[in-house]
């Protein structure tokens, strides 16, 4: 008898986690204490990240620069402009990106009941890459690159939703995998007939970076993440009910298919807006929800907020590591997150296999 997708996913889940997402993990720490710790880190981490760079600044200098930037921009010194115009937008974009990817991953793992689901599962990254390849290969500049990447992501999601309009989990996953391979192949084909400069530019963009951060682009991903957090929080009770299975959710009055497709659309729009400006940054949406579930369980009323905050704080430190790990050279953020994510799941797998 052929192996079904649902059986395969269940087997992978049991191998890696020895549990299902409907089995809520016993909290290791008090959710409210973790929330308080993350809120503190949300203030301290950006200050530390802003102070470290080619021009070293003290935390006092950073605080004074932020104060002068808000109160009297005309009186800013050179060090103040470094903080306000260069480092602060980058740190804020890292916060927004980390929060959005972590939130999207948590929601997708809930609605698909698949612990391996992440924001790039449904062809979003591949669609954005194709849009970016087209923009770079045809010489589009400025705002055209993120716009083309965003449109590419939306096309990918639209095709996936049409192919799996019944909302079944297996159909969504299969459609996402198929579209990812198709769009990745098309992007590779365009690059094959393009020039080497376009290939290098697309490669750096696809690995993820916050180097493009500026005050002009910050409102777009911020609005997307803020609206998504508000909408998802409204349906948190329904998402928790969905973890126990479709039939159980139906008995609690949850419209399963509309909820699943609606959450997919919300997370797709968030991820598309982030990929458009930051490139492909993997493993955040896959790793952070697992860490949060291990710490506070999956039934806490603040789990979504904690997940978003954890992703935001983590991304600030990941970006700082990417900037400082090598002298006079910046590593792509996506490379750092991929290494961290791989090590995390290797350790988790080793612990699960230990008798």
Automatic annotation (TrEMBL):
Transmembrane segments: 33-52, 91-108, 120-138, 144-164, 171-192, 222-244, 264-292, 304-325, 331-350
The keyword Membrane is annotated on this UniProt entry: yes
InterPro entries in the record: ABC_BtuC-like (IPR037294), ABC_transptr_permease_BtuC (IPR000522)
Topology versus the membrane: Multi-pass membrane protein
One GO CC annotation: plasma membrane
UniProt KW keywords: Cell membrane, Membrane, Transmembrane, Transmembrane helix, Transport
Subcellular location: Cell membrane
One GO molecular-function entry: transmembrane transporter activity
Principal cellular location given in the protein's record: membrane
GO BP terms, alphabetized: siderophore-iron import into cell
Family: Belongs to the binding-protein-dependent transport system permease family. FecCD subfamily.
Protein name: Iron ABC transporter permease
């Amino acid at each position: 008898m052929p192996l079904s997708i649902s059986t395969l996913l269940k087997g992978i889940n049991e191998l890696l986690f020895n549990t299902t997402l409907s089995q809520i993990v016993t909290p290791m720490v008090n959710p409210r204490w973790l929330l308080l710790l993350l809120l503190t880190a949300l203030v301290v981490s950006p200050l530390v990240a802003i102070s470290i760079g080619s021009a070293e600044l003290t935390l006092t200098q950073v605080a004074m620069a932020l104060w002068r930037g808000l109160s009297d921009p005309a009186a800013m010194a050179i060090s103040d402009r470094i903080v306000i115009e260069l480092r602060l937008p980058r740190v804020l974009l890292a916060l927004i990106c980390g929060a959005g990817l972590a939130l999207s991953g948590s929601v997708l793992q809930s609605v698909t009941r698949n612990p391996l689901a992440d924001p790039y599962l449904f062809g979003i990254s591949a669609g954005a890459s194709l849009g970016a390849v087209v923009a770079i290969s045809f010489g589009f500049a400025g705002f055209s690159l993120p716009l083309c990447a965003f449109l590419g992501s939306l096309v990918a999601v639209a095709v996936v939703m049409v192919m799996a309009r019944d909302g079944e989990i297996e159909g969504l996953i299969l459609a996402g995998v198929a579209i990812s391979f198709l769009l990745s192949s098309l992007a590779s084909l365009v690059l094959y007939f393009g020039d080497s400069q376009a290939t290098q530019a697309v490669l750096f963009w696809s690995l993820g970076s916050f180097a493009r951060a500026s005050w002009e682009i910050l409102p777009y991903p911020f609005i997307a993440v803020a609206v998504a957090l508000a909408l998802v929080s409204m349906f948190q009770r329904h998402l928790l009910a969905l973890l126990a299975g479709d039939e159980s959710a139906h008995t609690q009055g949850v419209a399963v298919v509309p909820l699943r497709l609606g959450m997919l659309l919300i997370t797709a729009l968030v991820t598309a807006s982030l990929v458009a400006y930051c490139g492909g940054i993997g493993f955040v949406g896959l790793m952070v929800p697992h860490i949060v579930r291990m710490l506070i369980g999956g039934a806490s009323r603040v789990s979504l907020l904690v997940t978003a905050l954890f992703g935001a704080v983590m991304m600030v430190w990941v970006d700082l590591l990417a900037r400082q790990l090598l002298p006079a050279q910046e590593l792509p953020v996506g490379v750092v997150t991929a290494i961290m994510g791989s090590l995390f799941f290797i350790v988790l797998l080793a612990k699960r296999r230990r008798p």
